[in-house]
Amino acid sequence: MTRAEELNQIQREQNEACECALKKTALQPVFGDGNPDAKIVFIGEAPGKKEDEEGRPFIGAAGKFLAEMLAEIGMKREDIYITNIVKYRPPDNRDPEEHEKHECAPWLHAELNFIKPDVIVFLGRHSMTHFLPGLVISEAHGKLVHRKIPNIATEYFFPLYHPAAALYNGGMRETLMGDFKKIPKVLEKVKETKK
After folding, report:
1. What's the CA gap between 99 and 78, in Å, rounded?
2. Which domain holds residue 97?
3. Assessment of whether the complete model's pTM goes beyond 0.70
4. How does pLDDT run across 21-69, given as a tens digit for each residue?
5. 115-150 as b/e, with b when 16 or more CB fall inside 10 Å?
6. pLDDT at 193 (0 to 100)
7. Which of 9, 70, 99, 156 is the right S-S partner for 75, CB 3.0 to 4.6 Å?
């Protein structure tokens, strides 16, 4: 069994076991997507309408913007792994609620501990505050955070604004693009630290 197949099996098992209430209203689960050996994992907040229909994360406007930013730093979507804090679309694209994040957490943690990335990038406050409560995205964005979190192999985290929020806000867009360009240096720094 390849690592991609193993990861897919974990996804299917977690979907079966997941007791998130959003399961009842979503069309389907949206599994994480990408390289099972990725050095970097991006975590968004929740699938949107298009993602719910097609079963893949970040395929709408925010996903296109993310792909453009990856290209700017010489990476492709195939190099990374991308997932969401909740695996099912909230009704009317509302924010995921705390209990929904909690119900989907074992699934997310299983993905992360299988991949064991060097760095986890939070796309927006929802994924960030799940792992790093007390941080504020407007202060934490673009800064590397080193923290040991129980039951998570990765210790390095890099919060960013969510691409969807930055799409229609010029100032936030510039900030996000600037922060995003730090990713290669962040990966290099973490690699050096782990030697």
Report:
1. 31
2. 3-194
3. yes
4. 999 999 999 999 999 999 999 999 999 999 999 999 999 999 999 999 9
5. bebbbbbbbbbbbbbbbbeebebeebbbebbeeeee
6. 87
7. 70
- CATH number of 117's domain: 3.40.470.10
Give the DSSP H/E element, type plus range, for residue 81: strand 81-84
How many independent structural domains does the chain possess?
A: 1
Closest CA to 20 of 120, 87, 78: 87
Please state at what angle helix 3-17 crosses helix 98-115, rounded to 10 degrees: 160
> In this model, does residue 88 exceed pLDDT 80?
yes
Three-state DSSP class for residue 12 = helix
What is the DSSP pairing of strand 81-84 with strand 33-34? antiparallel
